[in-house]
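Dig into these lines:

——
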Amino acid sequence: MVALNRTTPVRPAAMILIAAMLMSIGLVMVGSATASLDRSLLAPRIWTTPFGRQAIFMLIGLAIMLLIARLGRPLLASSSARARLPIILFVLAVVLLAAALVPGLADPHRGSQRWLHLGRFGIGVGFQPSELAKLALVAFLASLLGERRANARSFGRTFLPAALAIGICVGLVGKENFGTAALLACAAGAILFVAGCRLHHLLLIVGLGAAGLTFLLFAAPYRLARIAAYQDFWGDPQGAGYQPLQSLVTIASGGWWGTGLGSGVQKYGYLPESHTDFVFAVLCEELGVFGGALVILLFCAFVWLGIRTMLVARTRFERLLAFGLTFLVALQAAMNIAVVTVMTPTTGVPLPMLSAGGSGLFTVCAAVGLLAAIAHRSLIENADGMTECASEARRDREGSGGTP
């Protein structure tokens, strides 16, 4: 067994392969969850079907992943790029988040202004700025707290700018998307903790964050209704408790081995959001506990590789970035599975790499590409170190006149 230490290299291809496997499973399940007797799986205009759109999104996501994995290496090596790009990305995310709240620019979806409409050519393409905000906030905090000159324990130089950035992102996202806001707050707090911020600074931001999330919770009555429904969903099985009950029925229908791929019944109008937030329930119905456990194991493998990438990263910035991205994907997956299995109230957070949609998929693919770039840089450093050690050993043998 290979010892897990700081010099153990991580193969970037392994992380990309796991992500591709999860996306492939997601594509199959989106196709199954959106199957209809009066509509073919594919159409002449492929983007008009959910399966066709998701297939296109997957191909674009893979291209983004591979491109960032390749271009990310020189960018990570550049100190100016590490300092400037996260700020540019963060400012862009804030501008887009603010634009999504403007009635004339936003694309309302079920009463929630989370989308920006990007075109009107019959494609129905939209973009969710909160997905970009996840990547932007993690990169900004990693850059701010990872600079050599910065002091993570300083209130004015690092903690206050970090707290302001977190507050801006969480506030703008939370107005329309409480689940993603809570996800951002938890991920940001974890990065501050790992970066070594002072305990009383952390307690301060935890208190402010809890107060802010509580305010957002009470600002929208439907959020309180979801909590009430979670506490007693049997009390209103046809109203507020309908979705959690149907999710449990869907999972229970699969048993250990499932009803068979494509043979699920709950997706035919019984389970809302069956191809987006609740695609894991459909997977459990058709592939059973075995299929659900396989997906969870793949996420665990992804997290394990992400932690190893963090441990072998070359710089403090890369370590914080690898931790933040890994934690973000892991926490979002855990939140979604907890909602689908009715362990927590409904939050509207999709399952990374499996739920239908392009914005979230592209963000996760960019995160995987960055992790692969970090892993590749550490792999090169490990190879260079081994070459240097071999050269030193050869010089020692030549100097002493010994033989190998």
